[in-house]
Amino acid sequence: xxxxxxxxxxxxxxxxxxxxxxxxxxxxxxxxxxxxxxxxxxxxxxxxxxxxxxxxxxxxxxxxxxxxxxxxxxxxxxxxxxxxxxxxxxxxxxxxxxxxxxxxxxxxxxxxxxxxxxxxxxxxxxxxxxxxxxxxxxxxxxxxxxxxxxxxxxxxxxxxxxxxxxxxxxxxxxxxxxxxxxxxxxxxxxxxxxxxxxxxxxxxxxxxxxxxxxxxxxxxxxxxxxxxxxxxxxxxxxxxxxxxxxxxxxxxxxxxxxxxxxxxxxxxxxxxxxxxxxxxxxxxxxxxxxxxxxxxxxxxxxxxxxxxxxxxx
Length: 313
Known about the structure:
It contains 12 helices and 9 strands. It is α/β, with parallel strands linked by helices. It is globular and about 55 Å long.
């Protein structure tokens, strides 16, 4: 299984065959995770450090579980209370990490490009767990695996991404991945939450939910971050839900077998109706959580293979 990259910093550098390699290996890890043993040895003897400069219970827990199931020594560094508060630069942090000889570094950072900078300075494989408004590659990959398992394919689907596109690294990574896999992407949201020049990404843009959802195979809702609600981007939560929240009436415009997704955590009654979120016939939100562990196992496995090959060579 070929994966030529030293790091996983974003979807942008990945060719379609790289994406498929991760998803195919993740399928094997879905099977492992559903077995009684749940443990492999792909990362045996390796050290994984999780550095989350932004809090994220779901992503950090998923990466931690993925590393432990593959036999890595996993350490979580509490970056919010770390040396950075005392003025340490990212470069100093990288030098400190090099002295610890980690093998895999999982990083979430509020600044776009910070993870890439770290990757240039450390002597290990780096995985981007979300950087600013830039990318969140493993989220897009787990979304892709969820879609592929539900629909049997990733190409030639009509997929709607709805909500706060402008501030969403999840949306950016999904737009890149789904476009690369030859699916058509529609973006739906208020003009205030749509980035300038977004049409250049080869997507269709709608500010009307019903028109945007007409005939789609997948409805992917995005979290409306509380900090955006106070910034004049939307009139009110109630008005937002009325126009852009997913309820049964709006979902009725999608295909009868359309699936509903959300990266979590959800604001029920703001982005999505609670009954839709819990509808086992339409919602794959819990599947996304399960696929997250398998995808992160696959990504770390492939990067570890490359790391060992480089060190051996």
